[in-house]
Amino acid sequence: MSVHQQELSVGTRGKGTTEVTAEVACIVAESGIAAGTATVFCQHTSCSLVIMENADPSARRDLERWLDRLVPENDPDFVHTLEGPDDMPSHIKMALTRTSETVPIARGRLQLGTWQGIFLWEHRAQPHRRRLVVTVMGE
Amino acid sequence: MSVHQQELSVGTRGKGTTEVTAEVACIVAESGIAAGTATVFCQHTSCSLVIMENADPSARRDLERWLDRLVPENDPDFVHTLEGPDDMPSHIKMALTRTSETVPIARGRLQLGTWQGIFLWEHRAQPHRRRLVVTVMGE
Amino acid sequence: MSVHQQELSVGTRGKGTTEVTAEVACIVAESGIAAGTATVFCQHTSCSLVIMENADPSARRDLERWLDRLVPENDPDFVHTLEGPDDMPSHIKMALTRTSETVPIARGRLQLGTWQGIFLWEHRAQPHRRRLVVTVMGE
């Protein structure tokens, strides 16, 4: 059993999902671990993770638009507005999605389903540089 | 420390939750691992996992109905509709719940709370055969 | 590689978030594990976990209020109401947030981002004593 850990730096272009499956798969390959898990962790509270269909981009766009509508900016109940109208909605969208995701590894590869991809979901309007930590554990 | 990994195939009857606690507990018992974690991973983007009360089924039905109302079919904003009106709502419901869930193991048993059960939540209208991967790690 | 597991008992004061970062960090320090993961697991279905900004408390209050509004009490569609009007909303809020959260450990410390804290989120109106299980695995 061993642990292999690596940071991923991801540049986002403002609101939307950025696929990181290939980068995580690469860290798994470098780890030399054949069976176990890869835990992806997002070190932020205004972006998040989601495992989503990666074939047809329209599914992701519909998901993004739906969540935008559920958590609109300029909610009159928001008090935490110092960083702009997209600040508080970003925290809420993060809380409704995921900060950590653990994917099984078998035969040295991520065991994602056929249509699954791992995405970093930027909730802020402006581009940001985001840090993920990938921890591969197993044997 | 060792890793024990097994796939679970679950037949669903269309929209709704199916308990898989006993099946996961069985894999934990077979692993021989006394202390560690069991990670359940759902290899799909139109069904998901949730850990929910397993005593009174009305709690699950209320949860299912509430989410149905939050994410209705035939949303005029949806573009990704080729696979039917339940396709896009399924992806959204999946994103709002969980793809992976990690449960502690102690004394060879899952450390779920008294009222907790692990459920596969089918979001598509039609029955499907679904694959979960259970990874038990520990000593 | 080794496993270190410990229970945390947290008293809540009714609805709201209680930070448990220091308690989890303490268990990580006691484990002596330098690299790996800490999995926090909530053994209940009417409270949950969230990793949220821990600097400005107004961000948490806005998040709590927003979720209260999304999942109001006394929904006429609820059947599971025996334990009071806050029972079913508690289960729904739990399902929309997290039961388990896995945080990386490096150099013997939790690798949370600068603004991240780990919170237990009580969804019931009354104070409760809640149990979390923290599993530290690594080397």
General description of the model:
3 copies of one chain form a homotrimer. Helix content of chain A is about 25%, strand content about 40%. With about 140 residues, chain A is of the alpha+beta class. Chain A has a single domain, classed as Sandwich (Jelly Rolls), CATH 2.60.120. In chain A, a hairpin with a 2-residue loop joins strand 5 and strand 6 (about 110). The mean pLDDT of chain A is about 100. Chains in contact: A-B, A-C, B-C.
Mean pLDDT of chain A: 98
Shape of chain A: elongated
Structural class of chain A: alpha+beta
Q: Please report the two chains with the greatest interface, counting residues with C-beta closer than 8 angstroms to the partner's C-beta.
A: A-B, 36 and 33 residues
Just name the CATH architecture of chain A.
Answer: Sandwich
- The proportion of residues forming helix of chain A, as a percent range, comes to 25-40%
CATH superfamily of chain A: YjbQ-like
Radius of gyration of chain A: 16 Å
Order of helices and strands of chain A: EEHEEHHEEEE
Q: Biggest sheet of chain A, in brief?
A: 5 strands, antiparallel
- Per DSSP, the total helix count of chain A is 3
End-to-end span of chain A in angstroms? 4 Å
Q: Pick out the low-confidence regions of chain A.
A: none
Number of strands of chain A: 8
Strands of the widest sheet of chain A, in order across it, are 1-8-3-5-6
Regarding CATH, which class of chain A?
Answer: Mainly Beta
